[in-house]
Design a protein that fits this description.
This protein has 196 residues and is an alpha+beta fold. It has 5 helices and 4 strands; from the N terminus they run H-H-H-H-E-H-E-E-E.
Length: 196
Amino acid sequence: MEAMDRRRAFTLLELLVVIAIMGIMAAILFPALSKVRSQAKRTMCASNLKQVGVGLRSYLSENKDRLPYASFLPSTGPFPLSTKEPIYIADVLEDHVGGEPRVFRCPMDDNGDRRPEPNRGKTYFESERSSYEYRWQFAGRTTAEVAGRIERRIGEAIPDNTIWIMRDFDNFHGKGGTVGARRYLYGDGHVTDYEF
C-alpha cells in the first residue's frame, strides 16, 4: 500500500519542474497577449475614427460638401474662430454619428499626465470631447477646394484619398516618428496610418 501512495504523489523536484514550465509559458504568453490587447485597441480606434468619417460624410452631404467650422483646442478657447465660445467638432458631428459621443474616443487616449495646464491629467476626449484632431485649416471649404489649394501649393494634382481630415491628437499607438503612431481619417473616408 505504501508503494502505491508513493507513485501517486509528486516529488518536490517534479513540482518545481512544473512550476518552472508554467513560468516559462507565462513569460512567452504575456507579451503576446499584451500585443494582442494593444492591437485590439488600435483596431477599435480605427473603427471609431471610421464612424466619425461616416458622420463627416453625412455632414458634408447636408452642407453643400463644405467642411465644418470647429475650434482647434476648444478647452483653451475658440481659435481659429472669431466666435466668443469654442466649437467642439464632436458637437458639430453629434447628430451625424447617431448621438453617440464614444465614437470620438480612442481607447489609447490615456496620456493626460504629459499634457500642459489647463489640461494636465485629462485625456483629449475629456477636455476636447474628441481624441481626434480636426484639420481646422480646411473649414468652410469643399474637399475639391482643399485639393485645389494643395495642388497650387505643391504644383501637382492630389486626390482626396491622400488628404487627411482628422487624426489622433497625439501619438497614442507608438513612439512619435514611427509608422503607426497615429491613425488618420482621409478625405475619401478611409482610415489608416499616415500616407506620404
